[in-house]
Design a protein that fits this description.
five-stranded parallel beta sheet, four-stranded mixed beta sheet, 9 helices, 9 strands, globular
Length: about 210
């Protein structure tokens, strides 16, 4: 059996560029997979089941909650969103590193179940830049912009619950930092102790 992959949890305020960072990171590493969430909402044009989301009925979702098949879940308006445990565990056990791009409340729930996961908080270069990035989307009213901005201030207070913080100023530099974090985590002694190579070394010493 191969070595288990890393679970990498990425959070940060809206406009910090988490999605772009994750997409770039995934394009550069074929041993990385993005966790696919399940949702009760209808697919939008171009969305594919099992790629963008696992689209399920409200009844299916409730059944998953009852059977403890979700790492975390939340209700957004009339629909539910959640992280299926089976998808994450299957890929981790196959040796893939799994990225979970998730909000802070979801990340804290994941931390209870997977304390060994790597938690990374993405920051914008400044709050002014964050405001500019949200404005550029062109879909925000002044009221919703202020709401997102206030929310970002509150979210940043949770940085201490994470292992690492990466400022997304220059995209390529931020991606390099994420890659370095993953490499460093794989070299940690407590992780190596659980690996096949450590077991082989121990067996070799016994046979000396």
């Amino acid at each position: 059996m191969g070595n288990k992959g890393l679970l990498i949890v990425i959070s940060g305020p809206s406009g910090a560029g988490k999605g772009t960072l994750c997409k770039t990171l995934l394009s550069r590493n074929d041993k990385l997979k993005l966790s696919v969430s399940c949702t009760t909402r209808q697919p939008r044009n171009g969305e594919v089941h099992g790629v963008n989301y696992f689209f399920v009925t409200h009844e299916n979702f409730k059944e998953m909650i009852d059977k403890d098949e979700l790492l975390e879940y939340a209700q957004v308006y009339d629909n539910f969103y959640g992280t299926p445990k089976s998808f994450v565990d299957k890929n981790l056990n196959e040796g893939y590193d799994v990225i979970l791009e998730i909000d802070i409340q979801g990340a804290l729930k994941i931390k209870e179940k997977y304390p060994e996961a790597v938690f990374i908080f993405i920051l914008p270069p400044s709050m002014e830049e964050l405001k500019n990035r949200i404005k550029k989307r062109g879909s925000e009213t002044e009221e919703s912009l202020l709401k997102r901005f206030r929310c970002a201030f509150q979210e940043i207070n949770y940085i201490s619950r994470y292992n690492y913080v990466v400022t997304n100023d220059v995209l390529d530099e931020a991606v390099k930092k994420l890659e370095c974090i993953i490499i460093a985590e794989k070299c940690r002694v407590d992780r190596i102790k659980q690996s096949d190579i450590f077991t082989q070394l121990q067996e070799g010493l016994k046979n000396e």
